[in-house]
Specification:
about 450 residues; alpha/beta; six-stranded mixed β-sheet; binds adenosine monophosphate; binds magnesium ion
Length: about 450
């Protein structure tokens, strides 16, 4: 893994793919592994620190998936077939299910979710039958195959089988699995604390009245929202001015969290001081730019968190006094333009936060959609351009949002995705299938 360190880093601009790869390789094994126990529902959106195991077979009995009659499929070779009705099983009724059995020429009424009685090998749907109550008989007008309309015991999972692995972020389906095995409490990883430091003399806090040349600090809030969405705990720091002393103090404070995200101050301007100050803190820089638009000046690196500490013998695993190296803290310097901040977060900071949160690595999923109007651009950068995907079903089409460049949050708020344009393309015709990254 290549890296370099100096007080003022020399530029290292990498391709989009290399930048992703560098983040992924540094993100391996960063999760501190601290575990918390939470109530099941509080586990929604959290990352599992334990495996969820099937406590019994799923389904625990052969489960009917239709309302109808449990039958022997061979009895329906000739239609219509007249079968003798010998019982009824409803969902939850084990005594009926175990009491009756289906012999040749017989049928048992059965409801969705009920256990299939012995002897039956299929369920015929009630829609294809007529009931002759007086004769205790049912007439069947359709054949069924063996195994139709029920799920055999253990077909979904066997007792003892792993249903969800450690590292899985729980969504509603994961919550359903945990509930189905009776986990009312779950072990999850602690959320990583992610410090957010916005830099710039033009910034004011959002409840202050901005002067004529000032703007409100929106990036700290968009980033905090993105951090929450990625499974982290945002720690918003005060605004850092474009002044090295105060900037350094706030960076040092931010390095106390699990990850530090800076915005602004990473371009080529005279007052873009972030890299210089990080360099003074002996930062290692893995890249100082990526061949993308928006977000080209994005920076990724790490800092030692302080001087190595002596661990007393009583507290050390080996029982001997040891020097413990404090963990390196990773940081991203995200460009200050709000759309660049949001895009570079999704592309680079999110996988690091997910790894710190204990999640197994996720690949970036690109969807495909047909382009509504042509795109003309320049070669050389991989572009993530705000776009609107509209239209339902097979009529969905995507079109670039009208925007004034990467400071235009109003355009981004109207967009619902990014069209991804490879660096070698300068013209994409209307009607072509293009890659999308959902927002
Ligand atoms: P910079 O990356 O510092 O050169 O800033 C690029 C642009 O983004 C400038 O127009 C800044 O005013 C704007 N900007 C920087 N930081 C923020 C922020 N925290 N919130 C909103 N806009 C910002
Ligand atoms: Mg700035």
């Amino acid at each position: 893994m290549s890296s370099f360190s100096s007080t003022a880093p020399s530029a290292r601009v990498v391709s989009f793919e290399e930048a992703r790869h560098l983040v992924a390789s540094h993100a391996t094994g960063v999760c501190p592994g601290d575990v918390q126990t939470v109530d099941l529902l509080a586990g929604s959106g959290r990352v599992l620190a334990e495996r969820i195991i099937a406590d019994r077979d799923f389904p625990p009995f052969p489960r009917a998936t239709r309302d109808g009659y449990a039958v022997r499929a061979a009895d329906l070779a000739e239609l219509p077939a007249r079968l003798q009705l010998v019982g009824e099983v409803k969902a939850g009724d084990w005594s009926q299910a175990s009491a009756c059995s289906v012999g040749r020429g017989q049928a048992v009424g059965i409801m969705t979710g009920a256990p299939l009685p012995a002897g039956a090998d299929a369920v015929v749907m009630v829609e294809h039958t007529s009931l002759w109550l007086a004769d205790h008989a049912v007439e069947v007008r359709r054949t069924v195959g063996v195994g139709e309309n029920f799920v055999p015991r253990g077909a979904e999972a066997r007792a003892g089988q792993m249903l969800l692995d450690r590292g899985r972020r729980l969504d509603h389906a994961g919550i359903a699995i945990a509930a189905s095995v009776g986990k009312s409490r779950l072990q999850v990883f602690r959320k990583p604390r992610v410090a957010v430091l916005s830099t710039g003399d033009e910034l004011v806090e959002i409840d202050a009245a901005p002067g004529p040349a000032q703007i409100r600090n929106s990036n700290s809030y968009s980033l905090a929202a993105q951090i929450q969405n990625a499974g982290g705990e945002p720690v918003r720091l005060p605004i850092a001015p474009d002044e090295p002393g105060r900037l350094r103090a706030l960076i040092e404070e931010g390095l106390g969290s699990d990850l530090l995200l800076l915005t602004g101050g990473v371009s080529m301007g005279k007052y873009d001081l972030v890299e210089q100050v990080l360099g003074e803190l002996k930062a290692e820089f893995y890249f100082t730019g990526a061949e993308i638009q928006p977000g080209r000046p994005v920076v990724f690196g790490s800092c030692g968190a302080g001087a190595p500490a002596r661990v007393p013998a009583a507290n050390s695993p080996s029982g001997r006094s040891e020097i413990s190296a404090p963990p390196r803290k990773y940081f991203f310097g995200l460009p200050g333009n709000p759309v660049s901040t949001m895009v570079t977060f999704e592309l680079f900071a999110r996988p690091m936060i997910e790894a710190l949160a204990g999640m197994t690595p996720q690949s970036l999923i690109f969807l495909k959609a047909r382009l509504k109007s042509e795109i003309r651009t320049k070669k050389g950068l991989k572009r993530f351009l705000p776009a609107v995907l509209a239209g339902e079903f097979e009529n969905a089409e995507v079109e670039l949002a009208q925007w004034q460049g990467s400071g235009d949050i109003a355009a981004l708020a109207r967009a619902n995705c990014y069209v991804v344009i490879p660096p070698e393309r300068e013209w994409i015709e209307a009607g072509e299938w293009v890659s999308l990254l959902m927002r």
